[in-house]
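Key result, reporting period 2: structure in, sequence out.
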C-alpha cells in the first residue's frame, strides 16, 4: 500500500506495477489494468465508463463529456481535460499530476484519497463536489475558478495559486490553507468557517473581513 502525507493528511495512492498493465489506446466501458500513452480522446462521449488500476499519460480528453463514471486506483499524468464536462464521476485513490483542467466543468463529483499535484484548474467550475476522504491540492493553479456548493472538509491546499478563486455556499471545515495567499479570494467569510491558517495569513483574512463588512478604516 502506497501513501503520501500532505500537512496532517494521509492519502492512499495507487500502487501500480508496470508489468501488470497492458498497453492500449482505446477507451472501453470498463478499462482495467491498462497503460495509456498519448491517446487522443478529444471530444469523446464517455457514458458510464469505469477506469480502474490504470496509468494514463499524455492523453487528450479536452472537450470530452464523461457522465457518470468511475476512476479508481489510477495515475493520471500530463493529461488534458480542458473544456471537458465531468458529471457524476467518482474519483478514488488516484494521483493526478501535471494535468490541465482549464475551463473544465465538474459537477456532482465524489472524491476520496485523491492527490492533485502541479495541475491547472484556472477558469474551472466545480459544483457539488464532495470529499468522502483525504483530498489535497499541491502546487496547483486555481485562479479565476468557481466552486459552488462543495463539501470538502479537511481538504489541504499547499503552495497553490488562489487569486480570484470564487467560493459560494461551500463547506470547508477543517481545511488546511496554510502556505497560500488568500488576499484575492472572492468569498464570504462563511465559506472559510473552521479552516486552519498560519499567522502570516491573518492580514489576508482581515482584508476579506473589511471588504465583506464594508468597513471604513481611517488613520488618525
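The corresponding designed sequence is given below.
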Amino acid at each position: 500500500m502506497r501513501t503520501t502525507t500532505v500537512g496532517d493528511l494521509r492519502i492512499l495512492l495507487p500502487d501500480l506495477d508496470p508489468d501488470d498493465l497492458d498497453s492500449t489506446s482505446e477507451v472501453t466501458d470498463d478499462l482495467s489494468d491498462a497503460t495509456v500513452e498519448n491517446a487522443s480522446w478529444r471530444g469523446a462521449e464517455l457514458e458510464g465508463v469505469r477506469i480502474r488500476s490504470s496509468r494514463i499519460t499524455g492523453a487528450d480528453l479536452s472537450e470530452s463529456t464523461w457522465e457518470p463514471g468511475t476512476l479508481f486506483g489510477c495515475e493520471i499524468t500530463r493529461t488534458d481535460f480542458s473544456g471537458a464536462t465531468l458529471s457524476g464521476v467518482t474519483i478514488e485513490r488516484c494521483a493526478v499530476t501535471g494535468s490541465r483542467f482549464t475551463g473544465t466543468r465538474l459537477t456532482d463529483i465524489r472524491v476520496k484519497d485523491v492527490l492533485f499535484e502541479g495541475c491547472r484548474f484556472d477558469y474551472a467550475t466545480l459544483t457539488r463536489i464532495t470529499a468522502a476522504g483525504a483530498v489535497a491540492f499541491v502546487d496547483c493553479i486555481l485562479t479565476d475558478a468557481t466552486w459552488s456548493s462543495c463539501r470538502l472538509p479537511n481538504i489541504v491546499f499547499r503552495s497553490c495559486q488562489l487569486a480570484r478563486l470564487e467560493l459560494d455556499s461551500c463547506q470547508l471545515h477543517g481545511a488546511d490553507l496554510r502556505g497560500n495567499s488568500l488576499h484575492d479570494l472572492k468569498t464570504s467569510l462563511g465559506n472559510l468557517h473552521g479552516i486552519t491558517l498560519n499567522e502570516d495569513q491573518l492580514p489576508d483574512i482581515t482584508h476579506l473581513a473589511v471588504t465583506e463588512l464594508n468597513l471604513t478604516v481611517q488613520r488618525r
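The helical segments are 202-212. The CA atoms of residues 79 and 183 lie 30 Å apart. This case is discussed further under Risks and Mitigation.
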